[in-house]
Amino acid sequence: MSFAAPAFLLALLLVPLAAALYVQSERGRGRAARAFSSPRLMPSVVPHQPGWRRHAPMIAFWVALAVLAIALARPQATVAVPDERASVVLVTDQSGSMAAKDVQPTRLEAARRAANNFLGQVPGRVRVGLVTFNNSVQTIKAPTVNRGDVHGAIDRISPSGGTATGDALATALGLLDRQGDQRIPGRPRTRPPGAIVLLSDGKATHGQDPIPVARRAGRLKIPVYTVALGTPQGTIQVPRVNGNGTRAQVVPPDPQTLRRIAQASGGKAYEAKDAGELATVYQRLQSQTTTKKEKREITAAFAAGGLAMLLMGGLMSLRWFAKLP
Length: 325
What we know:
This protein has 325 residues and is α/β, with parallel strands linked by helices. 43% of the residues lie in helices and 20% in strands.
């Protein structure tokens, strides 16, 4: 929490001062009572002592004073709000290993469902694009608010071929970098906030090295959030070399490389070993990539709390002692 007018926090010093004056006053009152009556007669003269109730109203007033002093300082809380200028590109692996069934019903189907759910949760004015890849980039959809185009492209993905992670990242980075090409006359070029969500289930086998591309994304302030999909035991059926039938081939994910990509770009790395975990990851990514931190003043809440404590103290004093302190 921060404050727009922190100088008013000096008013908090009034709270211990008021408490000290009250304690001094109570001691003086006690000495006066003992001077005019014998301690043995006190139970007969005042059979019902107020006990803790004597001090409760004043404690409520001190708390009210502290809360109102904080209100004067105009407290601000940092909250996440939708960033409607943001652009997100989903980069989805559609290599042959995505046919593995270690993530039910298959890796590809789980990825497709998670991506479609992501689209459904993103604020309407946030632009979302899509890049799919295997040996090479297969689908390119520039960031748009038209969800139908992106949904349709996701639903048409089918698994085949190898993995060109670096080429796909470079394509997505180019799409986001071009978002800043539309200049306002008289103003410097500004790029709307952008992020890349990379989902892959294996090592890069084709194209350029993805790490230098991730470093370039970091220099452009475009974080890459990576999701390593699958388990080390995942397999697919591939043709035998002699052409007689098929054999099982293990297709483990490559979380180490994806973690390096995320770190180099300033993003975060996740791992998903089942469909439920993947859905949870995409829910987190929806918040991280389409919101921004913004300060909101919460003075009214503190002011209301302070007035409520004042009212409580007054009511307690009237109820128990028929007067205000």
